[in-house]
Every structure is written in structure tokens, then in C-alpha cells.
Amino acid sequence: MTTPTTDLPSPVAPAERMLILDAIRGFALFGILMMNIEFFQRPIQALMLGFNSEQSGLDYAVAWLSFTFIQGKFYTLFSLLFGLGFIVFIDRARQKGAAATALFRRRLWGLLAIGVVHLLFIWSGDILHLYALVGFLLLLFVNASVKRLFIWSVVLLLTPILLILLATQLLEMAMQVPEEAAKLEAGFAADKEKLLADIARGDLLYATGGYWQLVQWRLYEFQAMYLSPALVLFVPMILGIFLLGAALGRSGILQEPQQHARFFWRLMWLGYAIGLPLTLTWGIYGTDVEMVTASMRNAVLMTCQNFSNLALCLAYLATLVQLYLHKSRLIGWLAPAGRMALSNYLLHSIVFTLLFYGYGFGLYGDLGRAAATFWALLLYGSQLWFSHWWLQRYRYGPMEWLWRSLTYRKRPLFAR
């Protein structure tokens, strides 16, 4: 099939890319790996149990640092960048005379295909498919102003939090009635028993199962995790973060950070002033919070976590902008990894599933959190170097090239 050039502009050339956005994406990649390394040795459903308090010593310390300062913050940062990238993509496509929304839909379908393959055939912790599906809702805001994007972002971020607090309050009121309390407690106990059985089954399969057994199990995990009522609350939060990123993109602040240095300075300090106390509250008191049993204490602590996720995400972003404005070498090291974020993200899963799972080297459960994190740091460091090496020879990462091919229905130049 052939399509007129006006409908399908060329992919973004390396010279057109924004260094600061690539650097932030490379930094977000680091945080995602530091969080995901836990769930290459735990079933993804174990997320519902919260912090793993069975660890001790250095393993506990490393896990706690990740739980407090990384978990939730970097997924939020990645989501923010996705929304910002949506605006950049749409605006650039329009400047080139393209049917921008049709092009973005194809981009999302391509991401969805990559995400589903990753989810079923490599690792069940995939986030790409969810980003793609929620990304279709962004098209409702394709012409929205900065103000409208920001207002909808606030509404979507606050609504699930308020609903959780309200639902928890109603549950606690119901628990005051003995008959209702007995029913609710029995329901919570049954849910937890099923969850623990699923986690035990997942541990066994990941440690000893064959490849096709795990493909079937990942399909089951997908149904259990992503087709649950909790998705009703999770989707608005993702979309809210997308829209906040879109508002930043439409404002042009990150496209011209030199002209907004004071804004980023204030954002950095405000983010840390709000985020650090909240995340320390979460880190100190939230290690026993689980998502199976509802309580107002848990709901309040999770609210602290949600606000700290956003505040520290913005503080981290603003810190990187400050480093960029001061011409830090770190930005130059992070940017190539960010340009190849999709390839690097998928490589994390390939390397660690082969290392840990029964059909690979079978080390599942043998490495403590500290040792596993060391290997994750080693992989990330090698990716920083390799991304430099690769992009000196090729225009795109391999998966970025594939994604662009699916989006533009033509194969962009690969080698330099």
C-alpha cells in the first residue's frame, strides 16, 4: 500500500530530538529497572502484598530505599514523558502537514502489539500495553489548551484518591455492624487466601516451569491483575499523569528550559519540600500496607504515597533540567539510553527472565535483593555505554526502528 507523503511524514531525525527529554527518559529507565528487578523474582501479583518484610540486612535496606524513593516515582515520570511525547508528536506531525491523529493511532497500535508480545512471551510486568490502551484516550484532548489539560489532569488524579477514601470510610462504617463485618472479613480472607495461592503457584512455575507453561501462566496473571475492578481506578490516574505531561508539552516549557530556569528551580525545591516528608511517611509507616484488606490507615498512607510520587517525580525532572542548564556530563550519558528506552526496557526483561526463570539459568529466588540490584546496576551501566556505541553507528535502537516502521508504514534509514 502506498500513502502520500503529506499523510506520512518521515520519523523524527536525530538532529530534531530534544536532549533534555532523552536524558529524562534515560533516567526514568534507571528507576524502572530498580523497581522491576524485584518482580523478576516475585510474581507480579505480589504487588498486592506491598513491601516484602521477610528480607533482612543489606537486602532489606536496598529494598526499603527502592520502596521509599523509587517505587511509583519513576513510573510516574515515565507516564509524564509519554503524555509530553504525545504533544510533541502531534505538533511535529501537523507542522509537516500530516494527519496527526491517524498517525498517532498507528503509533499506539504498534506499541500495543509490542506490549502484548512482551507481556505474554517475555515478562508479565509489561506496562506498554496499558500505556497504549490509555493513550487512545489522549486523542480526546488533541486540541486542548494548557489550562484545560491541567484541569483535567488534576480532576483525574484526585478522583480515584477521593473514591478510595470514601469507599474505605463506608467499609469501616459497615464493619460496625456485626453481621456485615463477618461477611466482609470472610470476603477479605478468601481474597487473600486466593492471592497467596496464586503467588505460591507463580513462584513454583517461574522457578521450575517450562517456557510454554509460563506463557499460559502469564495470561492468567494478566486476567488477575489487569481485568480486575481496580483498573477502574488505575486508568484515570495514568491518564491524569499523561495529561499533566501533555500540559507541560503544550506549554513549551521543556522545549525551551533556558527561558524557564526560575520555574524549574522553584519546582525542584517545592517538589522535594512536599515529596520528601510524604515519601518518608510512606517508607516508615507503609511497609505493612497491603491492597487486599481495606482500612482507613492504609488508604491515608496510600494517599501520601500517591502525592509523594507526583511531587518527587516533578522534583527529579526539575533536578535533571538544572543539570542540563549547568551542562552536566551526566545528561550526555543519559540521553542515548533514553533515545533507546524501548529497546533497553525490553532487554531488561529478556536478560533477567533468562537469568532467573526455570527455562533459563534457573536462579529464581537464589539472589537477594542487594545482589539482584547489583546485577541490575551493572546491566544499566552497560546500557549507558552500549547506547552511545550503538547510536554512533545506527540512527535508532532496534525496537525504536521497528516501532517507527509500524507507525509510518515505511522503513526509515537504519544505519548512519
Automatic annotation (TrEMBL):
Keywords: Membrane, Transmembrane, Transmembrane helix. Residues 248-410 form the DUF418 domain. The keyword Aminoacyl-tRNA synthetase does not apply. The keyword Transmembrane helix applies. InterPro entries: Bact_Transport_Assoc, DUF418. The chain crosses the membrane at residues 61-89, 109-142, 149-171, 226-248, 269-287, 307-325, 345-364, 370-391. This is DUF418 domain-containing protein. It comes from Alkalimonas delamerensis. The lineage of its organism: Bacteria, Pseudomonadati, Pseudomonadota, Gammaproteobacteria, Alkalimonas.
